[in-house]
Amino acid sequence: MFQNQYYQELDVLSVNAAKLRNYYVPFRNLTEAFEAKDRTDSSKFRLLDGEWAFDFYPSIHEIPVEFSAIPQLPLTKEIPVPSCIQNHGYDAHQYVNVSFPIPYDPPYTPYDNPCGIYRRSFELESLGDEAYYLNFEGVDSNLYLWVNGQFVGYDQVTHSNSEFDVSAYLKKGTNELTVLVMKWCVGTYFEDQDKFRTTGITRSVYLVTREKAGIWDYKIETPVDLAKQTGTLSFTTPYEGEVSYTLFDPQGNQLLAGTGKKEFSLIIEDCAYWTAETPTLYTLIIEAKGEYIREKIGFREFTIQDRVLYLNGQPIKLYGVNHHDSHPDLGPSLLKSDYYEEMLKMKALHMNGIRTAHYPKSPEFYELADEMGFYVISEADVESHGVVNLVGASADYNLMARDEQFGPIIMDRIIRSVIPFQNRPSIFMWSMQNESGYGVNYEQAQKKVRELDPTRLIHNERAAQPDLFRENDFSNLDVISRMYSSFEDVVRYCESSAIKKPFMQCEYAHAMGNGPGDLADYFQLMEKYPSFIGGFVWEWADHAMYLEDENGQRVLGYGGDFGETLHDSNFCVDGLIFPDRSLTSSAIEYRNIHSPIQLKGVKNDRITLRNIQSFLTGTAFSAELSIHVNGEKRSDLPIDLTQLAPLSEVEISFEYPQVTTADYVTVDLILFDNQGEIVARQQKMIQEAKEETTIAICDLSIPSLRVRQEQSYYKVEGTDFSYTFNARTGSFEQLNVDDEALLVAPSFIHIWRAPIDNDRHITSQWRQAGYEAGQWNVIAMDIIEEATSVTFRGSYRLGMPSIQHILVMDLTVTIDNFGEIQYDFDVKKGNNLPDMPRFGVVFPLKKAFNKAKYLGYGPYDSYIDKHYASHFGQHEQEISAMFENYLKPQENGNHWKTVKADIIGPVMYQITSPKPFNFSFIPYSATELTNAAHSYDLPEISGHYLTIDYKQNGIGSYSCGPYLKEKYRFNDEQFKWTFAIKVSR
């Protein structure tokens, strides 16, 4: 049995690890510290990343017992550091959201605990009278460390730095590090986060050379005096020796220099304050005992007054996103360059906040957030969500939160998330945990964090789940934080006089698959209520990992694709960007909704623009403001954004164009950056066309139609067309024009959509109601033959065995002698049935139909509650551009509020309706999308599917959030609908 079973002991938090300190890297002199681009430029810093020798063991007990004393086993393989072993062919990926991946039996782990042994050698040309500290910035789930065969120590907490003084173990020449890493330890019970569960040295490893008995820990605070426009740099340290300091302004000019002991304060006149919009940083270099340390200083002060969040005296809103460390190639091992690219994308989408879900990041992440400008909620590495899945009364959300035996380990994890990053200006709030209940253990930790850092806010969303067996203490919490609150709850919180704290959504708008559909509604509430300080969308990126399919091809997988029996399927594929980091249409939706310059509204002959930035004028942008009629630009309006002050509005007058009641009139705002790239687009519809009656074209000079009946089929023949109509289904079996068959399968009337991820809680109701499998039954059919048209008038009922009827439908289909088809529906829904997914007609067209021109919302797909990525206008697209290839296939490609659409192929189908309709034109049917588990499971394309819909249910966030607002639901009890298809040769 493996010796030193620290990994199964609650009271062993670490062994021989160095005392916790704030993060910094020392430099050898002032010039090196000032000029260094990053920490690798320090001559006192040695990065040990790269290829390490490695071997994997399925069980810790397969390692020879003597290894604990003399870790000299030969290692036969190599693995990169940082990385996770699952991305390199060892063990297997497992995606779990809530459940613990091991039996709940703390502090014990399964006997067969998979592990890996790492080894790395490095040279020391000399070994001076200095101290050497070995740092591991993240090891999942724990580490045992040997240096030159001698045991040094043990540590855990996956997303936390582990530092060891290895001075006594090093030698001149070749030195050897050996690290044992286990998949599970007692910490596993506190790291039950919604993510792929991984193992390995997942973050950087480095050696730092230090002066012995030098400075170790210090704290920097930056209060501001708005009246005097000053900032104070307050420095305190327990170090007893003298500390010299040099402060440089943001342009690199030396401002102040001096010395102090234990503490000093510097007052900066005409101080340039730090914000996410203006991330201005000063540079402080401190020297103690010949060691130089650089800190980037942001002068800023966050306060709450009257339930409003202020930064430097200005109210701010949090337009944020939750960010996991996840990448299909890298697993959780994101480097600084990866963070940089992700933050660039966030900035381009107008995000100003990041919640580090659900653990602290590597130090370089926070330095980038300081530099690029983000408001960061830094979360502790604590989640014990799995307790809710225990059996019976044991399933208590607060089980570990109230059990005082877990108090020390919870306290340790929270303190380890605070002290290392206590000097980072980007962090404005500490988050105690995620989904781990509430109780005395968190109250004690919150009190301690307040003592350590009274300058930042404290967050604990699980205060929403108070311990019912005691009086709870919320005194150290600064916000009412909730996940996925309904719109009604948001209003209730914000309008309640009894609530004294601001309201925030640490998670909202579930961006899973084709979603979310409620971003605009939440944004409008943030704008309306000063006490609603903002929220963080769930989440940034889809989680997926590569695997080989049966043909040896690399494909992306989610939960259940890696042989795991316990998993949560594709619930990890829930981001605003795809695994390959390309943007979804939902990301563009977010970008446009959160535009820094808002098109607020139009009243009479005045257009109102609002700058929602708190600190910047509109100088960073140029804009095009224009009036469009039926998608065509009629006029440009002059606009000067440079004078648009923060949080202010401007009105612009315009002359209403000459239009008729049949026209659609919009005002469009396109925002550009200084490089001329579009950074947002907003639009207001200021006139919608009045409904007009669709009338079939008649021409007595064209020969009349011929009708032939074959059982329930009717063949209608004109001069150059023949249509086969199936009276039993009310649909066309085939459409022939100029002797060419245009359908690859019969058309059909449908109410089913391939469930989007946000339909997951209503899909079973839809299936139970027969929406997927219901069949049409014709009750009566009349045929009316006239000189220029043939009309089929039928009564139908949609039903399914064992349940009540779904729909009663009176359908009239008219075909005129030009070949135009007109549908007239009168539909009544059955009793006690859920909202319908959709209602419409599908035409499976030949692949030769490959382009669409339409007047409606595009170019991205659009729905009643998700259409802000798009705009109303004239669009022309290839079919390939109208389909979004989600890893888990689902409904997509719809175009809401379409006025007319032309489908182009061997002939052109022109679709019109008296009122706007929905249409999509994509390469797959709803059935094919429904049945495919992955995008690569979709069948070979056999046709191009034109869908013309009366209505669709909204998108929402119902996989995690509230159900759709009433106005977005397709719950019509009865409706009438008309549309027509004209053939143009």
From TrEMBL:
One Gene Ontology CC term in the entry: beta-galactosidase complex
Reactions catalysed according to its record: Hydrolysis of terminal non-reducing beta-D-galactose residues in beta-D-galactosides
Top-rank taxon, per record: Bacteria
GO molecular function: beta-galactosidase activity; carbohydrate binding
Protein name stated in the entry: Beta-galactosidase
Enzyme class: hydrolase
Keyword entries, A-Z: Glycosidase, Hydrolase
GO biological process: lactose catabolic process
Alphabetical list of Pfam families matching this protein: Bgal_small_N (PF02929), Glyco_hydro_2 (PF00703), Glyco_hydro_2_C (PF02836), Glyco_hydro_2_N (PF02837)
Domain annotation Beta galactosidase small chain/: ranges: 715-982
Family: Belongs to the glycosyl hydrolase 2 family.
EC number: 3.2.1.23
Cleaved signal peptide residues: none
Record carries keyword Hydrolase: yes
Entries under InterPro entries matching the protein: B-gal_small/dom_5, Bact_Beta-galactosidase, Beta-gal/glucu_dom_sf, Gal_mutarotase_sf_dom, Galactose-bd-like_sf, GH, GH-type_carb-bd, Glyco_hydro_2
SMART domains in the record: Bgal_small_N
Listed Gene3D superfamilies: 2.70.98.10, Galactose-binding domain-like, Glycosidases, Immunoglobulins
